[in-house]
Design brief:
The chain has 532 residues and is an alpha/beta fold. Helices cover 41% and strands 18% of the residues. The protein is built from 18 helices and 19 strands. The radius of gyration is 23 Å and the shape is globular. The relative contact order is 0.10. 2-acetamido-2-deoxy-1-O-phosphono-alpha-D-galactopyranose binds next to loops. Catalyzes the conversion of GlcNAc-6-P into GlcNAc-1-P during the synthesis of uridine diphosphate/UDP-GlcNAc, which is a biosynthetic precursor of chitin and also supplies the amino sugars for N-linked oligosaccharides of glycoproteins. InterPro entries: A-D-PHexomutase_a/b/a-I (IPR005844), A-D-PHexomutase_a/b/a-I/II/III (IPR016055), A-D-PHexomutase_C (IPR005843), A-D-PHexomutase_C_sf (IPR036900), AMG1_II (IPR049023), AMG1_III (IPR049022), PAGM (IPR016657).
Length: 532
C-alpha cells in the first residue's frame, strides 16, 4: 500500500503554499485544492480506522464563497465537526512538501495515534453544485482507493444532509438502540417532513414564504423536501434556483448577501410584509427578512431565530410539565446586545457567549438539557442532551393538554437536525413556530429592536498579533490596544465594540454597536483606526 500512496500522491502535486485547517476546514481557490483533497482523503481513512471503522464524512463545499472557490471539511461519527486535535494533523498532511513526505507523515500518524491499520476504513462524501466539484471528488476517490478504504459517493447534497447521513449510519448498530434516521435523501425528507406535518396539524396556512436558494444545492433539496410535504401544509416559492449556471452561485443572492447588504436579493419580487428567507451556498445557514409597509428592510437574523426558538421551546416544555429542564442560549460576541438583553430579561434564560465558529457554540450547547445556538449570520441549531431525549421519550402526560404538548415536543425533536445548523430544518422550524404563535414577520421582529451596529474588515500587516480573551470580546495583545478601545466605547450610549482576527480571511474584524446609527458607525471607524 505504501508505494500506492506515493504513486497516487504524485498525481496530485501540491502548490507552493502553506495551508491551514480553519473553522471552515480548508477553503480557497478551487485550482489550489487538488492535493489537499487527496490528503484529506488519506486523513479521513485514518480517522475512521482510529475510531474502529466508524463512518467519517467528507464534504466538498465553499459555502457562501464565490463560485471559483471550493473547500473541504471532515465530519466526525455523530455528525459533528472534526475533533479539534485532528485539525493539526490535517494541516501537517496538507503541508507535506513531497509525495514521500506524505507517506512518512501518514505512517507517523498511524504510529503516534496508535491506529490499527488492519481496521477497515469507512468514508462517505458529497459535494455542493460548484463546477470544480467532480474533479475534486476524483482526487478524493484516488486517495481512498490507494489506502483501500470502503467509500460511498453521495453525489450532490447539502452540508447538513451529509452530517445527518453520517450520524444515521453510525447509530445503526449497538451501543445505539435507535438509529438517528434512515441514511438516504428520502429518509431525511421523511423524518423532517413528517415532523413538520405533525406540528402543523390544525394550524391555519400562513401565506407564501419566498426562499432564495443562492443558486446552490439548497434549491433542488428544498424542492425535494417541499414535494414530500405537499402544498397543503407548505406554501413556498423558491427563487434563485439556477444551479446549472455556475457563475450565479451566491451572486447577488444568498444569506451572506442579504446579511451584509441589508437588502432584498434583486431577484426577489415580494409584497410588503411578506416572509422571505435566504439560504447560503451549501444550505447550512438561513436568515429571514421582510420589507415593511414603508418599504424599509428588516432582517431577522440568527439572533432573532434563536430567540424565537428558545421562547417556543420554553413554552412547550412548560406545557408538557417537565420540571428542572435547563434551556440555554449560546451566542458569539457578534450577537446583537438587544438579543442578549431580551433572552436574559424577557425570556429569563441563561446566555453563554463563546468564541466565533459553530464548533464552540455547539460544544457549549451540549451543557444544557436544551441548548439553542445560532451565530448572528444564521448558522445554528438546537441540541437536546442525552438525558433530555430520554425524558422526552418516556414522560407520561397527566392531562390531554400535556399529551398534545408532548406530541409536539417529540415532533420538534425530529424536525431539528441536531448534528449541525441546517437551513432546511431551520426554515421549517421557524414556519412552525410562526404558525403556532399566529405571527407574521412583523410581530416576530417586534419582540426586540436591534441596536444599530456595524461590522468592518480591517486589512492589517499581521493578524496573528491580535490575541483575545473573554470569548474574543477583549484584546490581550497588542498591548495597550484594548485600553484605547475601552476609552472610546465608554463615550457612547449603549456602546460596545471589539476587534478580533478573522479565522477565515486575512483581516481583523471590528464590530460595534451603540444607541444611535451614526454613533455605531463612528465607533466602528475609530476602533478600526486603532487596530489598523
Ligand atoms: P471569521 O472569518 O472568523 O469572522 C466567519 C464568520 C463566523 C463563521 C465563520 C465560518 C462573522 C463575523 N464571522 O468567521 O461567524 O460563520 O466565518 O464560516 O460572520
Ligand atoms: Zn454554509
Amino acid at each position: 500500500m505504501t508505494s500506492q500512496i506515493v504513486e497516487a500522491s504524485s498525481r496530485h502535486p501540491k502548490p507552493d503554499r502553506v495551508f491551514s485547517y480553519g473553522t471552515a476546514g480548508f477553503r480557497m481557490k478551487a485550482v489550489l485544492l487538488d492535493a489537499i483533497i487527496f490528503r484529506v482523503g488519506l486523513l479521513a481513512a485514518l480517522r475512521s480506522q482510529k475510531l474502529n471503522g466508524k463512518t467519517i464524512g467528507v464534504m466538498i463545499t465553499a459555502s457562501h464563497n464565490v463560485p471559483e472557490d471550493n473547500g473541504v471539511k471532515l465530519i466526525d461519527p455523530m455528525g459533528e465537526m472534526l475533533e479539534e486535535s485532528w485539525e493539526a494533523h490535517a494541516a501537517t498532511l496538507a503541508n507535506a512538501a513531497t509525495d514521500e513526505d506524505v507517506l512518512a507523515i501518514y505512517s507517523h500518524l498511524i504510529v503516534s495515534l496508535k491506529i490499527n491499520p488492519s481496521v477497515p476504513a469507512r468514508v462517505i462524501f458529497a459535494r455542493d453544485t460548484r463546477e470544480s466539484g467532480p474533479a475534486l471528488v476524483a482526487s478524493l476517490v484516488d486517495a481512498l482507493t490507494a489506502v483501500g478504504a470502503d467509500f460511498t459517493d453521495h453525489g450532490l447534497l447539502t452540508t447538513p444532509q451529509l452530517h445527518y447521513f453520517v450520524r444515521c449510519i453510525n447509530t445503526q448498530n449497538p451501543p445505539h438502540t435507535e438509529a438517528y434516521g434512515v441514511a438516504t435523501e428520502q429518509g431525511y425528507y421523511e423524518k423532517i417532513g413528517n415532523a413538520y406535518k405533525k406540528l402543523m396539524q390544525g394550524k391555519p396556512k400562513q401565506g407564501t414564504v419566498t426562499v432564495d436558494c443562492a443558486n446552490g444545492i439548497g434549491a433542488p433539496k428544498l424542492k425535494g423536501l417541499a414535494d414530500f410535504i405537499g402544498k397543503d401544509t407548505l406554501d413556498i416559492k423558491i427563487i434563485n434556483d439556477s444551479v446549472d449556471v455556475y457563475s450565479k452561485l451566491n451572486y447577488q443572492c444568498g444569506a451572506d448577501f442579504v446579511k451584509t447588504q441589508q437588502r432584498l436579493p434583486p431577484a426577489s419580487q415580494v409584497a410588503s410584509l411578506a416572509r422571505c428567507a435566504s439560504l447560503d451556498g451549501d444550505a447550512d445557514r438561513i436568515v429571514y427578512y421582510f420589507n415593511d409597509a414603508d418599504g424599509i428592510f428588516h432582517l431577522l437574523d440568527g439572533d432573532k431565530i434563536a430567540t424565537l426558538a428558545a421562547s417556543f421551546i420554553t413554552d412547550l416544555v412548560k406545557a408538557v410539565g417537565l420540571a428542572d429542564f435547563r434551556i440555554g442560549v449560546i451566542q458569539s460576541a457578534y450577537a446583537n446586545g438587544s438579543s442578549t438583553g431580551y433572552i436574559t430579561k424577557t425570556l429569563s434564560l441563561p446566555v453563554v457567549c463563546t468564541p466565533t465558529g459553530v464548533k464552540h457554540l455547539h460544544h457549549a450547547a451540549t451543557k444544557f438539557d436544551c441548548g439553542v445556538y445560532f451565530e448572528a449570520n444564521g448558522h445554528g441549531t438546537v441540541l437536546f442532551s442525552h438525558s433530555a431525549h430520554q425524558i422526552i421519550k418516556s414522560h407520561l402526560p397527566e392531562s390531554p393538554a400535556q399529551a398534545t404538548a408532548l406530541e409536539n415536543l417529540r415532533a420538534l425533536v425530529d424536525l431539528i437536525n441536531e448534528t449541525v445548523g441546517d437551513a432546511l430544518s431551520d426554515l421549517l422550524l421557524v414556519e412552525v413556530i410562526l404558525a403556532h404563535k399566529g405571527w407574521g414577520p412583523k410581530e416576530w421582529d417586534s419582540t426586540y429592536t436591534d441596536l444599530p451596529n456595524r461590522l468592518v474588515r480591517v486589512e492589517v500587516k499581521d493578524r496573528t498579533v491580535f490575541k483575545t480573551t473573554d470569548a474574543e470580546r477583549r484584546l490581550l495583545e497588542p498591548t495597550g490596544v484594548q485600553e484605547k478601545i475601552d476609552g472610546l466605547v465608554g463615550k457612547y450610549k449603549q456602546g460596545r465594540s471589539f476587534a478580533r482576527a478573522s479565522g477565515t480571511e486575512d483581516a481583523v474584524r471590528v464590530y460595534s454597536e451603540a444607541a444611535e446609527r451614526g454613533e455605531a458607525e463612528e465607533l466602528a471607524r475609530l476602533v478600526a483606526d486603532i487596530v489598523a
